[in-house]
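2024-03-11 09:14:02 INFO worker-7 job=invfold-0412 stage=load source=structure_tokens
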């Protein structure tokens, strides 16, 4: 039978749901956009960002990450580096990414807010930072609860063993009482 979630677990589920919802909403800012400035063709960095999105859509997280890192290595400070940092943070936090790393995601979003405080992506990055920090706190609490639960399970197991031994001793005592009663009856 499944137990109803406690207040702590409801809070954890709520935060995880919020994290997933925010991820889905943020992914819309990571959508394909062709950037043309005054009739000029899109830059190489913009093509990298678009290709990164295509790779992410295909589930090639490593490829998407490499494309964004190439933008960081090629472009001068400012756009599109801020977008590349934001995208890297999303890739590291992406739920289906088998190599997701919330710590790296957090560091990347923090770097974005520190290096590009005027970027239009800073507010979204701050939301991600708050969610990732809260997620880390919840994971730490969950780990402590799991450790406590493990200790409780060990204690319960030991108590069950004591109960079984006690039952065994009770049965032996009853058997001896019966034997004694039989012997007394025979002696009479």
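2024-03-11 09:14:09 INFO worker-7 stage=emit residues=188
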């Amino acid at each position: 039978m499944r137990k109803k979630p406690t207040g702590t677990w409801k809070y954890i589920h709520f935060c995880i749901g919020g994290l997933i919802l925010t991820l889905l909403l943020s992914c819309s800012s990571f959508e394909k956009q062709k950037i043309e400035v005054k009739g000029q063709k899109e830059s190489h960095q913009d093509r990298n960002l678009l290709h990164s999105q295509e790779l992410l859509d295909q589930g090639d997280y490593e490829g998407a990450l490499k494309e964004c890192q190439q933008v960081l290595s090629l472009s001068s400070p400012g756009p599109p580096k801020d977008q590349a940092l934001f995208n890297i943070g999303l890739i590291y936090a992406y739920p289906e990414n088998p190599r997701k790393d919330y710590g790296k995601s957090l560091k990347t979003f923090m770097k974005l807010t520190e290096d590009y405080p005027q970027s239009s992506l800073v507010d979204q990055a701050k939301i991600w930072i708050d969610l990732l920090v809260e997620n880390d706190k919840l994971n730490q609490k969950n780990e402590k609860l799991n450790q406590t639960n493990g200790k409780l399970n060990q204690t319960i197991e030991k108590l069950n063993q004591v109960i079984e031994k006690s039952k065994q001793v009770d049965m032996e005592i009853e058997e001896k009482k019966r034997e004694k009663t039989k012997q007394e009856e025979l002696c009479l």
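2024-03-11 09:14:09 INFO worker-7 stage=report msg="DSSP finds six helices and no strands in the chain."
2024-03-11 09:14:10 INFO worker-7 job finished
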